Amino acid sequence: MDSGSSCSEEDTHTFKIILLGNGAVGKTSLIRYYCESGFAQNYKQTIGLDFYSKKITLPAANAPEVSLQIWDIGGQQIGGTMLNNYIYGSDAVCLVYDVTNVSTFKDLEDWKAAVEAALAEGASADDKPRKAPLMYLVGNKVDLPNRQVSDSLHDRIAQQYETRTGFIVSARSGEKVNAIFTKIAADLTGTELKKNDLDMADRVTAKVISAPEERVEATRAPVVLTKNKKKKDDCVVM
Question: Which residue, 19, 58, 65, 120, has fewest beta-carbon neighbours within 10 Å?
Fold first, then answer.
């Protein structure tokens, strides 16, 4: 499979996106929320890598259809030949950390160094070096208390790392999850989106093409039905 960007016979632009960061920062949850429109309380930590693919239509006039190949790299994989192979040839890299765990934020320096090493090694071995991927800084778990990384610190490091628009998101609530992947797709296709387009990113039409077979089913709370009479202006959950 060609991991680089391409355009199919149906005029669909295909791009490879890599998510990197320490284990348990929520990379899998981010991807699953985006591709499966939901958050699971329980899942197995990614060992090695998982692959997801999703087609979207950008909320802009005459925007092309885009297929995003999203690679979930296990947090244990920093450094090594395998990681280098997946980074080189990617179109975008998201450096993901947990806003409630400052050590995951500090470790992004090592992940960024791993990306730079992979790109340098790949370019030296390639007769026609590929274009460097776009870089994004993503802070996850903003819905949780005891936040340790502020917006200002996030923005400062994003500027220092020369990453594109940094996002503070929540895989649990879904806050800005669609927006970041929509922004990446727009940047890769050269499509200009207005702020309102990103704010309305939940309207992006999508079709999940493939996802890892192994899943851990999330526990669902039982539904309790009561016989109390409905009071005026009460809401009823169906």
Answer: 120
- How far apart (Å, rounded) are the C-alpha atoms in residues 109 and 114? 9
Q: How many CB atoms lie within 10 A of CB 183?
A: 23
In this prediction, residue 138 carries a pLDDT of 97
Determine contact, residues 136/167, Cβ cutoff 8 Å: yes
Q: What pLDDT band is residue 201 in, cutting at 50, 70 and 90?
A: low
Instruction: Encode burial over 40-50: b for 16+ CB neighbours within 10 A, e otherwise.
Output: beeeeebeebb
Of 63 and 183, the one with more pLDDT: 183
Domains in the chain, ordered, with CATH? 13-102+117-207 (3.40.50.300)
Secondary structure letter of residue 4 according to DSSP: S
Q: Calculate the dihedral angle through the C-alpha atoms of 108, 112, 118, 121, rounding to the nearest 10 degrees.
A: -140
Which of the listed ranges 44-58, 131-145, 183-197, 217-231 does the model predict with the highest average pLDDT? 131-145
pLDDT average, residue stretch 17-26: 93
CA separation for the pair 84, 215 (Å, rounded): 27
By the 10 Å C-beta count (0-12 exposed, 13-18 middle, 19+ buried), 88 is classed as buried
198 has pLDDT over 70: yes
User: Residue 117, by phi and psi: left (phi above 0), alpha (psi -120 to 50) or beta?
Assistant: alpha
C-alpha to C-alpha distance for 3 and 81, rounded to whole angstroms: 16
